[in-house]
């Protein structure tokens, strides 16, 4: 029987009269990677801070490795690791000195553990350099190593690739995937980089205004999508104006040379006929497979696409 490592039941957080987190529930097993996504202000960081007991909850229950956090405060230090989007260190200490300092808070964290983590995150050669000389990416790696010192069963990552270049982002996400697959650590990660979450997460939670709008396996989220088409055009303004006239068509995104639109009952030919009389010089309509970003935008959309044309 596969053991549930973390379970969250009906979690709520209220500030004054505003429900920032509203009855959030989910569970995860060893090696799960859960992507927690939502617009800014949706309640993602608040949820993570509640799980790590940085702030209090209003109601609900959280269980880590079968133990309720309210009754077992030592569970956090023993079984949970956390790193934020901008991890802080003692800049005039070296990387290895920073880890040794934190290691004193935990039993049974020796130098072998510290060295193995530095190797895992690719900082062995920089271990004896002062952190003030570290790049943003190196600090993110060191933050990941610090979060893993106590051999946690759950690791919470809030925007772990903030400020990194594309290569740095790829490397961090590769480490996270390796951590889940090889060490069977359960990962809860919040990020706006949905392209990467799509690749490494086996479960997705989408929240908006504190409420869950999707929770389930990553591959299942694509079932909520209608058919998607990309209109390639040299005049997005005309295309948008026409699409806004018909309720059947829902504009998902647009940029300078294309418009992505979803529709329930129409075909590509229907869409082509609708746009034909615009007499555009260069136009094509392509059916596309939805990305996680496309699905996310559909799920959190509250108002019709903003008419900025």
From TrEMBL:
Pfam hit, one:
ABC_tran
ABC transporter domain segment(s) = 6-234
| Family as reported in the entry's similarity comment | Belongs to the ABC transporter superfamily.
Source species of the chain: Anaerosporobacter mobilis DSM 15930
- Spell out the molecular function terms from Gene Ontology: ATP binding; ATP hydrolysis activity
The answer to keyword ATP-binding applying to this record is: yes
User: Gene3D superfamilies annotated for this entry?
Assistant: P-loop containing nucleotide triphosphate hydrolases (3.40.50.300)
**UniProt entry keywords in alphabetical sequence:** ATP-binding, Nucleotide-binding, Transport
| InterPro entries attached to this UniProt entry | AAA+_ATPase, ABC_transporter-like_ATP-bd, P-loop_NTPase
In Swiss-Prot or TrEMBL terms, this protein is called: ABC-2 type transport system ATP-binding protein
């Amino acid at each position: 029987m596969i053991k549930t490592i973390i379970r969250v039941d009906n979690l709520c957080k209220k500030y004054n009269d505003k429900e920032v987190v509203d009855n959030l529930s989910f569970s995860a097993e060893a090696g799960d990677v859960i992507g927690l996504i939502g617009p800014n202000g949706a309640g993602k960081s608040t949820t993570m801070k509640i799980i790590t007991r940085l702030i209090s909850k209003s109601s609900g229950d959280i269980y880590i490795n079968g133990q309720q956090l309210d009754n077992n405060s030592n569970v956090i230090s023993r079984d949970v690791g956390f790193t934020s989007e901008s991890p802080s260190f003692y800049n005039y200490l070296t990387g290895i000195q920073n880890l040794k300092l934190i290691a004193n808070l935990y039993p049974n964290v020796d130098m072998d553990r510290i060295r193995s983590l530095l190797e895992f995150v690719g900082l062995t050669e920089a271990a004896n350099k002062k952190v003030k000389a570290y790049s943003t990416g190196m600090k993110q790696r060191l933050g990941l190593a610090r979060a893993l010192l106590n051999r946690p069963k759950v690791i919470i990552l809030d925007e772990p690739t903030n400020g990194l270049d594309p290569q740095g982002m790829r490397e961090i996400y590769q480490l996270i995937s390796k951590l889940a697959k090889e060490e069977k650590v359960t990962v809860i990660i919040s990020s706006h980089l949905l392209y990467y979450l799509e690749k490494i997460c086996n479960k997705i939670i989408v929240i908006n205004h504190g409420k869950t709008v999707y929770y389930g396996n990553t591959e299942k989220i694509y079932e909520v999508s209608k058919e998607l088409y990309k209109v390639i055009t040299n005049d997005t303004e005309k295309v948008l104006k026409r699409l806004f006239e018909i309720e059947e068509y829902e504009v998902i995104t647009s940029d300078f040379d294309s418009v992505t639109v979803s529709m329930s009952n129409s075909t590509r030919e229907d869409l082509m006929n609708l746009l034909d009389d615009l007499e555009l010089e260069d136009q094509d309509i392509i059916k596309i497979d939805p990305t996680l970003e496309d699905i996310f935008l559909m799920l959190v959309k509250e108002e019709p696409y903003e008419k900025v044309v």
